[in-house]
Amino acid sequence: MRPPYPPSPERSAELRRRFSEEARSERPDLSTLCLLVGAEADRELDEGGLDEAQVELDRLAGLLPHRPGGPRAWAVALRELLGERMGFHGTPADYQRLESSLLHEVLVRRRGLPILLSVVWMEVARRAGAPVCGVALPGHFVVGFGSGAEQVLADPFDGGRVLTGADAELLVVGATGARLDPAMLRPADPLDVVLRILNNVRAWAVARPERSDVALWAVELSLLLPSHPARLRYERAQLLVQRGDFVGGAVELEAYADVVSAVDEAASKRVRGEAAAARAMLN
């Protein structure tokens, strides 16, 4: 499969405007945000492709039985449709592919990272009227049906396998070495889901220095979210320098140094030194 590359600057500017508006809307739409991430990654994803992906989610929702019952019945219905009939699941090899973090590609390949497969589960279930949410367990994203004591968890990466309490405990212990905390079962906010997806994209790109273009757009989209780690500004500055924009990187480094000076003067001084080194590269 051809590697995806970002669109033209004009197309990218329009996509980012829409991404920012959606992220700041009263009720951000998760599928729309994920598809805009996909369009920023893949110049081949045009407006028709964006519409086709939404239509596919609608189509899959229409294949579910009408209100099958309580949380467990919903979890089983999604597993039977998406996991068994449609073949959505993940494999270890999916962690090595950028496409595994792009919703439109996941809908076609029916493979992806746990969080993207969970987005498919959530968006299909939501359209069908299910009480569904994302659950950001440490190191492994799953979906929850229902709430409180009646909540039922399912693992889309494992084809939608319905999890017992012991299963969920094992996932958390395997990722952190600690016991499952009930606070981990809280519904994930859509914007937190998108930020986590973009973090995965950045992690993919960091392991591939030749794709610093991917790391840069992932950081820049993250910065468009209403809430994001301040350190992303520092990461963007480093990427600009890495890509040869020494002046732009230096300006960003100096701005970040101003931000951190109030809480960590030593760190601020170090970053200013990095800015001076970036400017010196112009000589």
From TrEMBL:
Residues 1-28 are annotated as: Disordered. It comes from the Bacteria. Residues 56-199 form the Protein SirB1 N-terminal domain. Residues 11-28 have a biased composition (Basic and acidic residues). It holds the Pfam family TPR_9. InterPro entries: SirB1_N. Belongs to the UPF0162 family. This is Transglutaminase-like domain-containing protein.
